[in-house]
Amino acid sequence: MSVQMHWSELIPHAGAMRLLDHVMDWDDRHIHVIAERHRPGHHPLQNGMHLHAVHLTEYGAQASAVHGALLASARGEACVRAGRLVSLRDVQLAIEYVDLAGGHLDVHAECLLADERGAQYLFKVEQRGLALASGRVAVIYTAQ
Questions:
Q1: Burial class for 33, CB neighbours closer than 10 Å (0-12, 13-18, 19+)
Q2: How far is CA 25 from CA 22, 28, 44, 75, 119, in A?
Q3: Nearest-angstrom CA–CA distance, 125 and 144
Q4: Residue of 63, 137, 125 whose CA lies nearest to 95
Q5: 1 occurs within a structural domain
Q6: Sign of CA dihedral 41, 42, 44, 50
Q7: Would 118 be classed as within a structural domain?
Q8: Which Pfam families does the entry link to (predicted)?
Q9: Are 135 and 89 in contact (CB under 8 A)?
Q10: Containing domain of residue 21, as a range?
Q11: How far apart are CA 16 and CA 137, in angstroms?
Q12: Do 121 and 58 touch, CB atoms closer than 8 A?
């Protein structure tokens, strides 16, 4: 009898650095996740009482990791390949600092390319329907 793992057990991010909370929807190309753990004083990347918008790229990278892990699990792969973030491109920041008390973050990622060597994703982070950050992440898989 197989036991289905929770998505958070499939990625290397743990503890306070696991920034995502819920997978809302996903398919073979897209994922939508929610992040709720960015309250003032409780975020591992905040400086004082501020979380700079550049850190939203980590949310996009983690959404990509979750998507890749869910795809691997759906294909029946015994273990998920670890990857390294090697590139951020076309990053657009609409704000300087995230409103830590402004409600959850919606993180969307779309797989542009994935093969045995790595993957590229577009990402977008929104809060209350307002675009905060977007860009592209590239990951190279490490040897197992």
A1: buried
A2: 9, 11, 26, 18, 20
A3: 31
A4: 125
A5: no
A6: negative
A7: yes
A8: ApeP-like
A9: yes
A10: 7-141
A11: 22
A12: no
Reduced to 3 states, what is the DSSP secondary structure of residue 96? coil
| Tokens found for residue 16 | 């306070």
How many domains does the chain divide into? 1
Q: Rounded distance, CA 30 to CA 59, Å?
A: 15
Give the domain CATH number at 122.
3.10.129.10
pLDDT at position 1 is 25
Whole-angstrom distance, CA of residue 4 vs CA of residue 10? 11
Does residue 2 form part of some domain? no
pLDDT of residue 24: 94
- Whether 59 maps to a domain, the answer reads yes
* pTM (2 d.p.): 0.87
